Amino acid sequence: MTRFWRRRVAFAVAIWFLLCAAGLFLDAHPRPALLALAVAATGVALLLFLDVQTPPVSWTLQSDEPVRARGEDPGLVLLSHLVSEQLYAREPGARLRRHLVEIVDRRLLAHHGISRIADPERAAALMGPALAQFVTAAPPYPRMTPSRIAQLADRIEEL
């Protein structure tokens, strides 16, 4: 037994002895075994409470974004797939067009507070004739060239 534990046990025995002596002095008829059990249980509870020393916990995260390698932005990956599909597929699909129209709608709402569906005139004035024609075009949609996609992306960024 180390010195540290000897002191603790000696302290518990001293407390037990003092409680027994006080009980005899006050004529309370103490039961030494039950008193020893109570002192031991209290001592163990105090040891557990005082000896558990945990460092303070920090709940702040280093970053809210998941760790990704450079160029692995999900939106960018989706757009690159859609552009590849538009350029190299046998039949040009409407997925890229739908995605670009959704981006236009989000930018109009976020930057100007305008819904393209609720206020088409104001939205068309903000979009400009080329982007407004693209957004309101009816099927069948022609295949977009890389220069056309770049023009649309530039115009969408200007919104």
Question: What's the SSE blueprint?
Answer:
Blueprint lengths: L2 H23 L6 H20 L22 H15 L6 H18 L7 H8 L1 H8 L9 H13 L1
Helix pairs in contact: 1-2, 5-6
In short:
Helix content is 66%, strand content 0%.
Explain the overall architecture.
The protein is mostly helical. The mean pLDDT is 83. 66% of the residues lie in helices and 0% in strands.
Rg: 38 Å
Count of DSSP H/I helices: 7
Shape: rod-shaped
Largest sheet: none
Secondary-structure content class: mainly alpha
Q: Helicity level, as a percent range?
A: 55-70%
Number of beta-strand segments: 0
The fraction of residues assigned to DSSP E strands is under 5%
**Unreliably modeled segments:** none
N-to-C SSE string, H for helix and E for strand? HHHHHHH
Q: State the end-to-end CA separation.
A: 77 Å
Nearest-integer average pLDDT: 83
Features:
159 residues, mainly alpha, 0% strand, rod-shaped
